[in-house]
């Protein structure tokens, strides 16, 4: 499969339009609690050495970056929203404006990729996961968390959600990219709209 220069240009223009769908990710109690819980769970079971290279994809205004720093790490963050970048940089975090599907890093750069509620914003999650796998070191870890489809919150109807897939599809795409799920976790809770659910996957890049 080959894309012409004109095809790449159309893809570029399409992605630029989607930037208008982004919005600031203000921290919420629910997301901060889940971030704390899962980050602590991951580091307790799969400890990282000091100096480990960590990338927070779709870092929002830095809740995970804050926790990583408190634990002695110096993570990098990426996001597309200018307000989020400004908020993170004011706290001293190193954050870059970057599309998750086109990571400007060398292969096998990171020991851990943290990707909470970001890949549903990808128009081609298979390719996005291939990028995550490319920049992960062999044996490196990925934490991926996504909203479930067709709950009372109907995440599939969110303005900038393009890939709200079922669990089996996520597991399949992870495996196709050499990312082996070590653990899966469900988060079930009730919102003002009714019952909702998130799925978390701790994955290891196969050597």
UniProtKB/TrEMBL annotation:
GO terms for biological process: methylation. It holds the Pfam family Methyltransf_23. It comes from Geotalea daltonii (strain DSM 22248 / JCM 15807 / FRC-32) (Geobacter daltonii). It comes from the Bacteria. GO terms for molecular function: methyltransferase activity. Keywords: Methyltransferase, Transferase. This is SAM-dependent methyltransferase, type 11.
